[in-house]
Write a structure and sequence with these properties.
The complex is a heterodimer of chains A (319) and B (309). Chain A has 319 residues and is α/β, with parallel strands linked by helices. Chain A contains eleven helices and 13 strands. Chain A is globular. Classes of the chains: A alpha/beta (319), B mainly alpha (309). At the A-B interface, helix 2, helix 3, helix 5 and helix 6 of A face helix 9 and helix 10 of B.
Amino acid sequence: MHLVEISDLEVSFPQADGVVQAVRGASFHVDAGESLGIVGESGSGKSVTCMAALRLLRQPPARISASRLNVDGTDMLAADKRKLASLRGRVAAMVFQDPMTAFDPVFTIGYQIGETIRAHREATKAAARSEAEALLARVEIRNPSAVADSYPHQLSGGMLQRAMIAMALSCQPRVLFADEPTTALDVTVQAQILQLIKELQAELGMGLVMITHDLGVIAETVDRVVVMYGGRVMEEAPVDAIFDAPQHPYTVALMGSMPGLAPGRRLVEIPGGSPDPSNPPSGCPFHPRCTQADARCAAEMPPVVRTGPQAQAACWRLT
Amino acid sequence: MSVIGTEQGRVSDLVHPAPPPAPPAGRQRGPVWFAWKRFSANKAAVAGGIVLGILILLAIFAPLVTKTGPNQQAFLTQALSPPSAEFWFGVDDLGRDFFTRIVYGARVSLTIGFAAAFCSILIGIPLGALAGYYGGKTDWVVMRIIEIFSVVPPLLAAMLLAAVTRGGFRTIVIIAGLFGWVQVCLLVRAQVKAYKEKEFVRAAEALGASPGYIIRKHLIPNAVSPIIVGFVLAIPLAMMLEASLSFLGIGVMPPTPSWGQMINTGMNFMYFYWHMAVFPTAALAITVLATTLFGDGLRDALDPTLKGT
């Protein structure tokens, strides 16, 4: 049994003028101790997938369906509010994109970390507080007691993201969802945070789901990659395979558009823009921008084909 | 021109940068400090606060600053005498020291003001938080209730209610609370509505917090500034309502001293014994003005974005 198992996940948001189909049949899994990267451009449905996995989307307006949506053996679609609340933070935790807004501005960092601890198990305020300091020290914050006494606005983005990670790890979750954890940070701090997440993941044997649009982040941190586009999974493969031999034309194009160090190489952009989620293209969502598309691509969504060990892709060209 | 980093040029620092240092201790200034700074720059608000403070102290220590009890007819022979060194505000028609009456009147007025404001937030906070957080049907129902309360003229409704219940202290508090919560409710609702979309609420959800917990522990504490402002601004409204009802004879019943009641009595003597009407009116005006100035100053200090609204 996989730690996180998602099959045929569909998420849509009914609007006054139609339905926004954010995720249209995504499937993947994560095992304990494994790290999975989800890449895709804005609007590809990667964040929504992650939110849906923890049932963090408000229903309504969101509509979620899946043939399987399991986290640590719990069917998330069947779980009631109480079950979900006890699961979140304890079994599965999440690190958000912008640490500046992910803390409540009126409480100190120490209090907020302690709050998470106290939400999931019996602990006195003092005990939770000293545990919070230990956690802050663990995420390499030098002066944990001063930081625990600080309000969010008094700390830098990098510090807050460390504190956010400390908070997410406070109840030793089995799987950590990181939704673009480094997007709001400068490049030097990014590297430190990624290093920290990687180390802690190995140390705690957690499953990790890293959501990003930054291929550099993926290359550094994960074992396996899921490439999403237009709410669908285009390709899934071990990280080396994705970089060395991408199979799907979209992945190939994505790699081509990544800035490299080779002198004189022009960046190859992907023509066109990402598809309109309220009116997605028929067939393969990538066909309007794909250089190798033909009539069949526009008519029918290609099946998922195996392309190697642990690797699969959805493209007619590979069948 | 110096090249950045050559002074202490250790390459290892660049490859494995040390974690950033913690902010220096002792320079930690909370939001309260900034609010205090903004508040103290507002002269009118500070003056209002000082006057209100003095009035509260006078009301609390009334027996110490007056020579007789409020209902004691100790100076019957000098009834209706004008202000003098002995009787600062004169003596009323029933031979009671008017300064004593005014000071004890502050007790009634302030107690009703604070109690009613407390009632207002007691009703306004939960309704505002629920409407703001859940939206949809809950919001619709709360907003319709608010509309009902805002189309009814408070004084007329209060007169009706007071006439039905025969007035009295508790009734006035309840009536004033019933008409004062709308403002608090709207302020809390707006704040909760704005904050529930913030990422920290989603973060709290992702870490296992229930809606009730989020409302109680994160959304209401974030709405504390509008709650304080709503509380303080509800006080003068309640005091005015009490004075109006007492003036009309359906508020606080005599002999309990109430400014509204005293204005009513004073009206009959106004052309001959001016002090009977002027002092209670001035007391009411000063108290309401001081509270309003203080409340406005608090609003500007606690939430600079609301300034001038």
